[in-house]
Amino acid sequence: MNEIQREIICIVCPTGCRINVSGDDPQALSITGSECKRGKEYALKEITDPRRTLITTVQLNHGRLRRLPVRTNVEIPKRSIFPCMEVVNRTEVEAPVEVGQVIISDILGTGADIVATRSMTRV
Amino acid sequence: MEIYDIVVIGGGPAGMAAAVAARQMGIEKILLIERDRELGGILQQCIHNGFGLHNFKEDLTGPEFSERYIQRIEELDIPCKLDTMGLSITKNREVVFVNSREGLKTVKARAIVLAMGCRERARGAVNIPGSRPAGVFTAGTAQRLINIEGYMVGKKIMMLGTGDIGLIMARRLTLEGSNVIAVLARKPYPGGLMRNVVQCLYDYDIPLMLQHTIVEILGKDRVRGVLVARTDENSLPIPGTEELYECDTLILSVGLIPENELSLSAGIELDRRTGGPIVNESRETRVPGIFACGNVVHVHDLVDFVVEESEMAGKGAARFVQRSVECADASIALLPGRGLKYVVPQRVTAANVEDGLDLFLRVNRVYGPSYIEVKDGRESIKKVKRPHMSPGEMERVRINRRNIEKMKGSDLIVEAVGVEG
């Protein structure tokens, strides 16, 4: 089993604690350096299942602007960010668009939808 | 001449929040002036998330946050003039603006709210020597080109400065396929929020080079590289440490300046520390009836605090129009003492403080365990502990009304003090 040994900078609050996570067993890692419970939870999540919201734009046709800003409605695994970008970059959307409208549903099986973050009228 | 109760200048989050607050106080005739083609201000190009955590208890993107306020403006039927540039204002509250439909026009306002925001420091403001090729952008310009206009700015990118927009653009450029070689900070610490350093640079393995700066830009038609030097303890380049980095684009994220040409046209007194107007508890400037809020007063890190401040200004302007408060002299001065860059508001009228007074302030260096102290002369009236403070994160402290009423002197001094060990 691989031994885990990582330093994580906590971003839960502005203090920016450096948290050390180490151990052999992912179920029983040692977490030191955190001043609080929220920091420990953040560090554990970063080690076991780091997730991020993907935010970018897609090509918009016949809209008032040429790009439509979009986001994932829930966080996706960090490793899926670039594969998802490839899918988004192949996507074109037709105006009009309403804020919250689903542009790509369940992108790459992550369970996350790519949704529009603004409304755009058609011209 | 057309007369309005309140004219708000600037249709970003500050101006929209002020207009909404004034309408909710029952003000009928409001006019919102915006120079862009739509409302929302800089939020429309800030497509990333992290907005509204305080205000809506949700993690919204800039456009989502802004659309909610635009909806409120529409619901409350507040008239807006888009593509309209405010040119000057006067002490007796005349506003001159121009657009292609009406030409040059002057209107009279019973109260004015200034919400013009801030603009970026550019190459000229930081004096980088070298040639003047294409490919040098401020972070905000690059952000608008990529996120709204749909143009990429370059392939191999060097970034100078660690403001939040810069950090966010380093991530954005990487996602869009550019190679961000490094982000340089002149100082030993980054200027932006820690969460942006972690989520924008560390996540994408973008090197952060602290204590480095650019001493020359190379290239004739297009940037072909930059000379990078290390900086000393005074943040000045050390001769002999220069190294060439090849790149086709340089992005600058080297600070923001409140945009106060209009304020100056009305003779409004500015605070040289914030670069914005001196304001009191309801964000009234030193010219009666002219209020200011948001980044035009001081550069904020979070839009939620911009909105909070703008609601104070909107309500203040409404009360001024309704004459429900006497325009008392803001007799108490709030002064930044040791350890502080600035404190807002700079003046206070004790009688107008409702429950408490929130002070917004910035420290001048990074602190570990420390405290912020408010003093009336030598007497301490408030002392709050902080585990950590940095110039990149705005601090806020609330002082109670009774503390202000009990005041003996006419100045309050605010200080930041590190705790040893």
Kindly state the percentage of residues in helix of chain B. Answer: 10-25%
Annotation, overall tally of beta strands of chain A: 10
* CATH level 1 name of the largest domain in chain B: Alpha Beta
The proportion of residues forming helix of chain A, as a percent range, comes to 10-25%
Which oligomeric state applies? heterodimer
Distance between the termini of chain B: 65 Å
Determine the number of helices of chain A (DSSP H or I, runs of at least 4 residues): 2
CATH-assigned homologous superfamily of the largest domain in chain A: CPE0013-like
Structural class of chain B: alpha/beta
What's the arrangement of strands in the largest beta sheet of chain A?
8-5-6-10-9
Q: In words, what does this structure look like?
A:
The complex is a heterodimer of chains A (123) and B (421). Chain A is an alpha+beta fold and 123 residues long. Chain A folds into two domains: 46 residues, no CATH class; 62 residues, CPE0013-like (CPE0013-like fold, Roll). Chain A contains two helices and ten strands. Chain A starts with a strand and ends in a 7-residue tail after the last strand. Chain B is α/β, with parallel strands linked by helices. Chain B has nine helices and 27 strands. In chain B, strands 1, 2, 5, 6, 7, 8 and 19 form a seven-stranded mixed sheet that branches. Chain B has a five-stranded parallel sheet with strand order 10-17-11-12-13. A five-stranded mixed sheet of chain B has the order 22-20-27-24-25, with no helix packed on it. The relative contact order of chain B is 0.13. Chains A and B meet through strand 5, strand 6 and helix 2 of A and helix 2, helix 4 and helix 6 of B.
